[in-house]
Amino acid sequence: MSLKCFLTALAATSSAFFAIPVMAEDRLKCGEASYFASEYTCHNDKTLCPTVFGLPTKPCGGSGSGGCYPPQQYSCSEEDGILRDLPEASSPFTLSVWGVRKAYQNQKIKACGGYLAFGANARQCHLCTAAGGKNCASFKNETVFLPDGRMNAAVPGGQYWYVHPSEGLLQYTAALDPPKNTSTSSWNVTAAEIPRKEFAGVNVKVHENGFFVWDKEGSSSHWWFACLVTLPGGVISTGRSWRLYAPLTPDLKDCDLVRVVATAVDKSNGVYKYS
């Protein structure tokens, strides 16, 4: 992708979505220009690059004075100023949310009850039962994803992340339990059918240390919607967290556009089972 094409697209959308309200903020200097640190980053005391969804962009060009790009999506050739897509993810990764609101910036996504959510009230639910044996102590118990659509869980049969095909909600599958009177060691897990496993990782593109993107063919948007939801058992205004939706449903309420970023981690950061 040429830098010129990217800048044209950025300019067309920035006025609609990317303005960050600033209150009582001092102006800084970048060369001869002034700027707010919440809106721009100064490079080499001469180039201002905008902050988009709370994420700083970087200049591309051999002299450092070229246009700006998101490093979560592209790499830049300093010699010719050409932008190239980051490679697709090959490592386990965590996910964090970024948006215009400060409440959205660098918020880790957590797994609990089949849902993936973020925010102060979002919970992470995991278990390591007797079936996990002595390996329980080896898990760091973070919500970790794998590029092929699996959750980073060691439970027999595995668990999978997916986007609900009609609602667009980002979710994960439940762990399977062996049939009654069947031990874990003798259970033929490969014969078990995991509901919605067929949707695992479908229509999502993950860049290595970069954007986690809704990538369905023909979709008009690759952003996600963060929607405020009351947790099970809660009441309005209490026990609420944000869940993520792909742009499939036009009548979403209490939602904002956000970007989601994948960060590579070690596989040991996962869990035995997400509950």
Characterization of the model:
- This protein folds into 2 domains: 3-9 and 16-85, no CATH class; 93-274.
- Strand 12 (110-112) and strand 13 form a beta hairpin.
- It has one helix at 3-17; strands at residues 28-30, 33-35, 40-43, 47-52, 55-56, 58-59, 68-69, 74-76, 83-85, 93-98, 107-108, 110-112, 115-118, 126-127, 161-163, 170-172, 204-206, 212-214, 224-230, 240-245, 255-264, 273-274.
- It is mainly beta and 275 residues long.
List the helices and strands and how they pair.
Blueprint: H1 3-17, E1 28-30, E2 33-35, E3 40-43, E4 47-52, E5 55-56, E6 58-59, E7 68-69, E8 74-76, E9 83-85, E10 93-98, E11 107-108, E12 110-112, E13 115-118, E14 126-127, E15 161-163, E16 170-172, E17 204-206, E18 212-214, E19 224-230, E20 240-245, E21 255-264, E22 273-274
Low-confidence stretches: 1-20
Give the distance, in angstroms, between the N- and C-terminal Cα atoms: 42 Å
Q: In total, how many domains does the architecture comprise?
A: 2
Beta-strand residue percentage: 25-35%
**Helix content, binned percent:** under 10%
For the biggest β-sheet, the strand order reads: 11-10-21-19-20-13-12
Average pLDDT works out at 83
Instruction: List how many beta strands DSSP finds.
Output: 22
Order of helices and strands: HEEEEEEEEEEEEEEEEEEEEEE
Shape: elongated
Sheet having the most strands:
7 strands, antiparallel
**Estimated structural class:** mainly beta
What oligomeric state do these chains adopt?
single chain
Question: Roughly how many Å is the radius of gyration?
Answer: 21 Å
Number of helices: 1
Keywords: Signal
Pfam family, one: Carb_bind
GO molecular function: carbohydrate binding
Protein name: Endo-1,3(4)-beta-glucanase 1 carbohydrate binding domain-containing protein
